[in-house]
Amino acid sequence: MKQSSQCNFLTHSGFLEEAITEKNSSISNYMFEMHDLASLEQNCQIENDVPTQLRHFGIIWIKNGSGSIKVDLEKYTINNNMLVCLSPGQLLLFSNCYNLDGYFMSFSSEFLLMAEGQTTGSFIDILFERRNLPLINPDEEMQSEMEVVVNMMNKEFRNYGLLRLQILKGLLKIFIVYLSSKVELKEQEKLCDRDSEMVRKFLTLVKKHFLTKKMVADYADELSVSPNYLNRIVKKISGFTASYHIQQCIVMEAKRQAIYSTLSMKEVAYFLGFNDYAHFSKFFKNNSGMNFTCFKNQVNQRA
Question: Looking at the predicted structure, is the pLDDT value of residue 54 above 90?
Fold first, then answer.
């Protein structure tokens, strides 16, 4: 077993962002980073004694290697050509890793929003919000196509040209849309049991009605079940409570409005269905770690 290192790059929340800032501060504003797993392993920066709680979205593509990876409470044996999509707040732990070959990509929700643009597609949900399909095992054709985009991202990440940010945004969007289309097909094949189907319906309803329906009971009534039952199966399938999914939809839309619109906080609050903008301000801070005005000011400064 390898001796774990205190220099695990995941545990140093600002380490890589500072490294990027020295080269090009515009990338670190909307954090995106990409690293070779072999180099991280060689430098003892991938294993740790305890799980690390992620601050950002992440995609790990392990092309070759051995060991294990634990995501939240589930432990998986590393196999060749496995891909893991991770969300902020999830716990990640690598153990007994040898001869890893692949990539680790990490990006903030703001960078992902910029890559997604103003579309309301379900790309984020397909890859990062549905926990019943934690791993992706790409076939040979998919591997080849992924390699093209990933190599371009890796090259551009190390290139400090004027349009680096725009190119990385575009490449990340292509990669996420491509993965989403593949995962959606596999997920549809697996969503056959009653609980999974109900969670799928719940998530669809939330995306349609979160502006006007913010209580779990509203969606339980739509699905003809009790709020407690809905919470239980949503937590079992997705790893999060029903109320968490509702709150995240509201916060995500609030951030979209902060980035892409000129609405004031009061106007955004009313748009999102809050009659009291002070209540909205407290809600936003509790669910994002920052008040709305500070978030919007940061966005404007970085524009």
Answer: no
Place of tokens 């619109």: 261
Give tens-digit pLDDT for 181-206: 776 655 555 544 678 888 989 998 99
Measured distance CA(188)–CA(196) in Å, rounded: 10
What structural domains does the chain harbor?
9-190 (2.60.120), 194-302 (1.10.10.60)
Measure Cα distances from 131 to 37, 85, 149 in Å. Answer: 24, 9, 25
pTM to 2 decimal places: 0.57
Distance (Å, whole) CA 139 – CA 137:
7
Beta strands in the chain (DSSP E): 32-36, 52-53, 57-71, 74-77, 82-86, 91-107, 135-136
Percent of the chain with pLDDT over 90: 29
Average pLDDT, the chain: 79
DSSP readout, 118-180? T---SHHIIIII-TTS-EE---HHHHHHHHHHHHHHHHHHT---TTHHHHHHHHHHHHHHHHH
Angle in degrees, 0-180, between the axes of helices 227-238 and 194-209, rounded to the nearest 10: 100
State the helix-helix crossing angle for 277-288 and 292-302, rounded to 10 degrees: 70
- Banded model confidence at residue 24, pLDDT cuts 50, 70, 90: very low
